[in-house]
Amino acid sequence: MREVEVDAVPLDRLAVLVDAERAVRIGRYAERARTMLHGRTVWNVNATAQGGGVAEMLHALLAYGRGVGVDTRWLVVDGTPDFFRLTKRLHNQLHGSPGDGGPIGDVERAVYDSVLGVNLVQLRTLVQPGDIVLLHDPQTVGLVTGLREVGAHVAWRCHVGRDETNEHTDAAWAFLRPYVEQADATVFSRRAFAPAWTDPTGVWVIPPSLDPFTAKNAELALPEVEAALRHTGILGDGEGHGDLAFVRRHGARGVVRSHVHLMGAGGPVPPGARVVLQVSRWDRLKDMAGVLTAFATHLPRLPADVHLVLVGPDVSGVSDDPEGALVLAECEKLWSEQDEETRARIHLCSLPMDDIDENAHLVNALQRHATVVVQKSLEEGFGLTVTEPMWKGKPVVASAVGGIQDQIIDGESGLLLEDPADLDAFVDRLLEVLEDEELGVRLGTAARARVRDRFLGDRHLIQYVDLFAALLGVPPDPVA
Length: 480
Fold this sequence. Notes:
about 475 residues; alpha/beta; Rossmann fold; 2 domains; seven-stranded mixed beta sheet; six-stranded parallel beta sheet; globular
């Protein structure tokens, strides 16, 4: 188990993005948190410090917490390959998919308990009675009982789920239920994700949020966008003329490095091409292969200047996802099976994970360069890869699954695909935007406003303060 260092960031900077009433409210909640949590530590425990939306949110939210004087810390569990294969299997099954089809029986429970037992030994030396522990996702819920035994207040946050149960979700919940039921509270991104057997009085619905000031979401001018993409070989035609510098999460200056191997299949994107972009993990539930297949099989319907770019992390840099390399290989094989014309218009990109801030800056540049951003997930807990381009004013076409349905109002702040498996309908939705520039502008403008209204960090932090108050038995703030 290791600790992730988080520096303090002033909460005041969010105030410039919200109205006066919201700014006053977050200030009042900050003071309440300082008073209520004085002398306590708020611990967050998850499975990785990089390579996913949970890690991104923790970097931002914990920095704001420290910025208002709350002692909040972040630990990442250690695990074996068998442990992470099991927890990936559970992750997929909670989404209603069989995953790798492996078992989740007594042998797997022994692996799970053994790995978390080792982590618990170290946790017990750190967590004090009265502290608050927020555990994230299936990789950590087995720590609940041991942490409660030391006198901590323990909540479990599940970032994944499915609106309708099936045999796979039932099997995963049956495995996790003995641990989940011991938690003082459970947190889900949607009410529908909570199993029917959870105590409704202990269930909290807290959707994720976006931090507009990270390297992934900070404002970027067009010259900086093009410079970053050309310097790294993502966009063809040599160097751009913009600044290659970016600001790291701790405020230090970073500079985009030169890369020669980011673009795998398809090579650099030609200058002047319009880009349909999906950014996500190499995860079967994100359906990168489905996006590639839809684009390839409907290529004659698409304008000749439109290219597809599929972007994921360098799979060697994501420790808790053993599936990634297989999915990337499947996409590469699909690409290789296309004719030469099709291969020239489809591009696979793996972003480096050894510098998380540079990675985020490149995602930012890619999303801002895109004409349309898609997220054709088969299931989705929430989808920060939807929120991010919405904040950047981009039109988004995404599956009407899970938390995406809470982000996009169809036809107003984006376009929803009712059936993620319907490739014809997917391309139809793409063409709506590609053939109507005015529609794209209108959707993008409304998308940014929706993120500002509902999915910024002030709302998220306020909900956490209310959750912590409930865990500690503190009466609600009558003014809040």
